[in-house]
DNA sequence: TTTCTTTCTTGTCTTTTGTAAACGTTTTTT
DNA sequence: AAAAAACGTTTACAAAAGACAAGAAAGAAA
């Protein structure tokens, strides 16, 4: 169960066995079914999640509409970082899109790990560096690319996700309406 | 000169005097005039910049057009993180918009600081956390808000920058054309 | 299976944006 | 001071996206 997690950590730093045991005992396993909220609107969250299996999305509600801003699958951390770090109530919702298996890390436990494991800061620093690069690319794509280009990029870079997530969620994730995505797809088919 | 930098670092961690001296000696001061490229297209970069004074932007070239993707002023780190971290050639350009004063940190020197200063990983981790929150907010704004809303948000959150940066650069930064921004501004004036 | 819900597509109409070019103004350079 | 470059706005037209509603298709639940 935690082997999968340490396959992930090994890409960043070489934790010693004692470190891994500390880490493993700090994280708790959680099995949740589809459509479960991991983080709720207007509440504080003190949990980070490592997704072992399944699929999650993060979304906002704007004018009564659900707008998906992030989608992720296996082997990644997710959380409402803003609320987690600053302690403020969070405006986003994180929910499962499939039955999912998670490792949950509590903020207090994380703070303890920073003290007890010397490599912990370096580990998180490296994860954040990777995450930042990804966010930078996503942000750049919004400025640089048209919705159609963003869709075709998603198609080529992450084809798997298209089978796991309903199109209307992908649409808002791309910054457009479901109607518009449907038309873009039609346009692409007609071209080929 | 470095006092200003340590006023910044103090917000994150309490470096000891010896640490600060190591840091100070690793960073070099650079004075550059307007329109100087700090990072160039298709070249690798091994430098990070802390902006003491002035204003910078990061931009891409798409279809011969300059598209600004980031603008920042005093007291922040900037760099082509992607190229800096992964060692690949970078597709963006960073240039000064005003005569600027910088502290420059080299990748090799940074790696040395990670070894010599125990708090260094924690310091960078905390900066990255803040940066990630900012990027997340920017990205969310692109998905959630209309160009007009993004402009009015920028207006209220960072009015100073409007006086320092030409409007056509702000336009692309907002993901729209200069023409469109001009129309949005007109629309806003007519409303009030 | 049958029903119910969710998802996807299509049509019409309106609004917004992009493109390209022109024009006046301001700023910078020589 | 004169010339050149950069900047901001406007116009006309084309392309794309949003809103809204209707209906088909697919999937889940009873």
The class by helix and strand makeup of chain A works out as alpha+beta
Biggest interface, CB < 8 A: A-B, 32 and 32 residues
How big a fraction of the residues of chain A is strand?
Answer: 15-25%
Q: How many separate structural domains of chain A?
A: 2
Shape descriptor of chain A reads: globular
Strand arrangement across the biggest beta sheet of chain A: 1-8-3-6
Quick check: average pLDDT of chain A?
94
Distance between the termini of chain A: 45 Å
Work out the helix count of chain A. Answer: 9
| Computed CA radius of gyration of chain A, to the nearest angstrom | 18 Å
CATH superfamily of the largest domain in chain A: Jelly Rolls
Number of strands of chain A: 8
> Residue share in helices of chain A?
40-55%
The CATH topology name of the largest domain in chain A reads Jelly Rolls
- Largest sheet, strands/sense/barrel of chain A: 4 strands, antiparallel
Low-confidence stretches of chain A: none
What is the oligomer described by this structure? homodimer
**What is the CATH class designation of the largest domain in chain A?**
Mainly Beta
CATH A-level architecture of the largest domain in chain A: Sandwich
Please describe what this structure looks like.
2 copies of one chain form a homodimer. The first copy, chain A, is an alpha+beta fold. Chain A has 2 domains: 3-140, Jelly Rolls (Sandwich); 145-192. Chain A contains 9 helices and 8 strands. The first copy, chain A, has helices spanning 3-9, 17-26, 81-86, 107-116, 120-144, 147-157, 159-164, 167-173, 178-191; strands at residues 27-32, 37-39, 47-53, 56-62, 65-72, 76-78, 93-96, 100-106. In chain A, strands 1-8-3-6 form a 4-stranded antiparallel β-sheet. In chain A, strands 2-7-4-5 form a 4-stranded antiparallel β-sheet. In chain A, a hairpin with a 2-residue loop joins strand 4 and strand 5. The first copy, chain A, is globular, with a radius of gyration of 18 Å. The model of chain A has no long low-confidence stretch (mean pLDDT 94). At the A-B interface, strand 5, helix 3 and helix 5 of A face strand 5, helix 3 and helix 5 of B. The structure holds a DNA duplex (30 and 30 nucleotides). Chains A, B: Residues 30-115 form the Cyclic nucleotide-binding domain. Chains A, B: This is Cyclic nucleotide-binding domain-containing protein.
């Amino acid at each position: 169960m935690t082997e999968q997690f340490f396959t992930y950590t090994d890409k960043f730093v070489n934790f010693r066995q004692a470190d891994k045991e500390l880490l493993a005992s700090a994280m708790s396993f959680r099995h949740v079914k589809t459509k479960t909220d991991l983080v709720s609107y207007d509440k504080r969250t003190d949990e980070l999640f490592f997704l072992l299996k399944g699929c999650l999305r993060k979304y906002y509600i704007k004018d009564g509409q659900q707008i998906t801003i992030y989608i992720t699958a296996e082997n990644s951390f997710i959380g409402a970082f803003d609320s987690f770090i600053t302690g403020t109530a969070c405006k986003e919702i994180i929910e499962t899109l499939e039955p999912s298996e998670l490792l949950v890390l509590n903020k207090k436990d994380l703070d303890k790990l920073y003290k007890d494991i010397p490599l912990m800061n370096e580990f998180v620093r490296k994860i954040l560096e990777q995450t930042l690069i990804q966010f930078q690319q996503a942000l750049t794509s919004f400025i640089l690319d048209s919705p159609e280009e963003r869709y075709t990029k998603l198609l080529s870079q992450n084809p798997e996700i298209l089978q796991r997530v309903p199109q209307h969620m992908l649409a808002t994730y791309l910054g457009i309406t479901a109607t518009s995505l449907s038309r873009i797809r039609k346009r692409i088919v007609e071209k080929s």
